[in-house]
Amino acid sequence: MYPRSAAPRGRSAYSNGLYPPAPAPRCYDYNHQSLAGVNRLDRLPPYEWKPPPSSSSVPTLHTPNMTNVRKRRNAEYSPHGVKRQRFDSSSHPLIGSPLIQAHPPPAHPGHMVAGSSRSSFVGLDSSYSSPQVHSHSQVPVVPQSSNSLQTYAKDKLSDQMVELFEACQQQTSDLAQKEMCRVRLQQDIQRVYAVARLYLTGSSMNGLGCRSSDADLCLVLKGNRKHDPIYVLSVLQRLFKTLSYVERTQLIRAKVPILRFREKGSSLEFDLNVNNIVGIRNTFLLRSYAYADLRVRPMILVIKKWAQHKQINDASKGTLSSYTLVLMVLHYLQTLNEPVLPSLQCDYPECFNPLVDIDMVPEGSKHVPPYISRNHSSLGELLLGFLRYYATDFRWDKQVISVREGRALPKTNSQGWRNKYICVEEPFERNNVARAVHEKMKFDAIKAQFAESCRILHERKDLNSILPVRAIINKESSRR
Predict the structure, then answer these.
(1) Which among 114, 209, 308, 367 is least surrounded, fewest beta carbons within 10 Å?
(2) Which Gene3D superfamilies match (predicted)?
(3) What's the CA gap between 335 and 16, in Å, rounded?
């Protein structure tokens, strides 16, 4: 990485304005490097973003140890969004050979974050992908145990959080089921849109999913022609009604229109959108955060379950979306006196460049080295701190939650933030992802749940006091 002074934030250090140029097309390894002891998905074959060459080798990846000190971030906040990358139809090949190729990242200095140290990035993690290419997958890697989570589970509350996480986290078999359906769908969709590609996004792919998580799909149609999402989804709805493995198709005309459907014979539900490229970008950003520290995934899973139980986790009903909740958790972990997380977009702007072509998005996140925090708080302490932060410390009327900047920004009078009860910045488009909370009554209910749960959990130190742990575990177990 380059020193902050060497290139403007958000702009690549490379002359062509893109993330490091690839010497050849490559596949993406969805399960990128994590610290020792971090839960990882079992190896699956490679998920292909571009057709790789007919033969390849896999050299070791290496990034030098971090040496530069992170500079204090600019206090100025720009409400202006970023331009979207324009697609080029010529760079859109169909799915090709299933072989893997990986290339070492460029050698460049990185940053050391105050309150932390970063170790060098030393290799490829396990791969994820199409079930039809099992015979070409790399040598399997045994997934690392999550026992090191016990380091942060020295008390009853933390133990309960680990138990809930381990019982409810998405399993390899759950992901494989979603991937098998994606492959079939892509093949059928390409009968209508020959150059279409279908990507799994959201919690299924960013490491923050549960066993019961639905699957988000993004259909990418490149080219100079502007595609009307409603029209495309209507075409797909007619197509899907002819498919033997799809049922209950429903076109939902939301701000981002989706086609909702189920896989026949299972409880697996899909939401498919068209060209919502920012969803792919934030999938890889959130995945980088999810595996930056052992405590992130259990924290987020427990808080999602808590919010669902308290009925404040449904944007369609004027409360918080799961995406908003995730950003709220990451923001809290970034803003502690001893941060659990850094701001990856500030430290590695070229890795999460919002202008980079979609085919290079997965490559950027693979070049972020592991993060080691000096904060050794237990999971229970962090959960209590999270509830307390939003119950008493955070200034809802004056502050904007920004994971991009790793801090609370002053609320401006721009249209995006004016008269909004909750302001949570989308890391790439910089709009308000909490805009669904537009009624004071719902906002007050959300704040009341934070305050009440904080009070009860502080008194009892028992997760069951705010969440029916056993009932949730049993429900998750019965879903698959």
Answers:
(1) 114
(2) 1.10.1410.10, Beta Polymerase, domain 2
(3) 34
Where would I find the beta strands (DSSP E) of 123-268?
197-201, 215-220, 246-252, 258-263
CB 124 within 8 A of CB 29: yes
Tokens linked to 289? 């955060």
Q: Are the C-beta atoms of 197 and 28 separated by less than 8 Å?
A: no
Cα→Cα distances 26→57, 256, 283, 286, 390, Å = 11, 30, 19, 22, 43
The residues near 162 (Cβ < 8 Å, ≥ 6 apart) are 146, 149, 150, 153, 298, 379
Mean pLDDT of the chain: 76
387 phi/psi in degrees, rounded to 5: -65, -40
Structure token pair of residue 424:
């949570």
Instruction: Give the 3-state secondary structure of 57-126.
Output: CCCCCCCCCCCEECCCCCCCCCCCCCCCCCCCHHHCCCCCCCCCCCCCCCCCCCEECCCEEECCCCCCCC
- Whole-angstrom Cα distance, residue 247 to residue 262? 5
Pairs from 13-21 (Cβ < 8 Å, separation ≥ 24)? 13/108, 13/350, 14/350, 17/355, 18/353, 18/355, 18/356, 18/357, 18/360, 19/350, 19/351, 19/353, 19/356, 19/360, 19/363, 19/364, 20/105, 20/106, 20/350, 20/363, 20/367
Residue type, 411: K
**Bridging pattern class, strands 371-373 and 246-252:** unpaired
Run of H or E residues at 399: strand 399-402
118 and 112 Cβ atoms separated by less than 8 Å = yes
Read off the tokens for 393: 């410390």
pLDDT of residue 73: 41
Question: Is the Cβ–Cβ distance between 368 and 348 less than 8 Å?
Answer: yes
Residue 360 confidence (pLDDT): 86
What domains can be seen in the chain, in order of their start residue? 150-478 (1.10.1410.10)
360 within 8 A of 88, measured Cβ to Cβ: no
- What tokens appear for 400 in the block? 């904007």
SS3 label, residue 217: strand
Distance CA 12, CA 355 (A): 9
pLDDT tops 50 at residue 296: yes
State the alpha helices, DSSP H only, in 118-171.
Answer: 156-168
Cα separation, 72 vs 52, in Å, equals 41
The answer to whether the CB of 119 falls within 8 A of the CB of 261 is no
The structure tokens listed for 124 are 């490829």
CA 307 to centroid of chain Cα atoms: 18
Query: Please, which pLDDT band fits residue 330 given cuts at 50, 70 and 90?
Result: very high
Gyration radius of the chain's alpha carbons: 22
